[in-house]
Write a structure and sequence with these properties.
Layout lengths: L9 H14 L4 H28 L12 H11 L6 E5 L3 E6 L16 H15 L4 E6 L8 E6 L1 H12 L4 H5 L3
Antiparallel strand pairs: 1-2, 2-4, 3-4
């Protein structure tokens, strides 16, 4: 979806991913993340418009932070992405969880595969917070996890989590959570 009305559906996104994995496997992750990131602005503008039409808010600063989780969940569900809940995780991170995220294809992968979504969510949450945000998927329904879980935080925080996961720790251990 974008501010100019273009909508890329689930089937299109899945076809793009499959084509990239088949024909350009070494570039697939980067292309999907960058394409998702580029779509973040349109998704954010759609969110602002959605707030205006469904919530009657004319400015983003009118959004009550206490209701942010519910509002974001309603927005992503109503636009076809799936159910999304946001919660704090560890020091300086957010968990974005979905039991039905649209990009996931259950049972098709051995690793998290929602690369487009990670890029889109990074740009979207960066615009929402007015700060650089990184997003990394750590659980995915594509590999038969119960949910897709994206971690969101500063680029430095997520680089540390990535490095610690590459060294064999879990993201829970890396964030110092239980």
């Amino acid at each position: 979806m974008s501010a100019d009305g273009l909508h890329v559906g689930r089937a299109t996104l899945r076809a793009l991913r499959q084509s990239l994995l088949t024909h350009a496997p070494d570039q697939a992750i980067t292309v999907l993340q960058e394409t998702g990131y580029a779509s973040g602005e349109g998704t954010f503008q759609a969110f602002v418009e959605w707030l205006r039409t469904t919530q009657g808010l004319t400015a983003l600063d009118q959004l009550d932070a206490a209701h942010l989780n519910d509002v974001l969940g309603d927005f992503f569900r109503s636009t076809g992405w799936g159910t999304l809940t946001v919660s704090e995780v560890g020091a300086g991170g957010l968990a974005l969880d979905s039991p039905d995220w649209s990009e996931a294809e259950p049972g098709t992968a051995e690793a998290p595969m929602c690369f487009f979504s990670a890029g889109m969510l990074a740009d979207f949450f960066g615009r929402l917070s007015s700060e650089p945000i990184a997003v990394m998927e750590v659980e995915c329904r594509s590999r038969n996890d119960d949910r897709c879980r994206f971690l969101s935080g500063t680029p430095e925080t997520l680089q540390r989590v990535y490095d610690e996961m590459a060294a064999g720790r879990t993201y829970v251990e890396a964030l110092g959570t239980r």
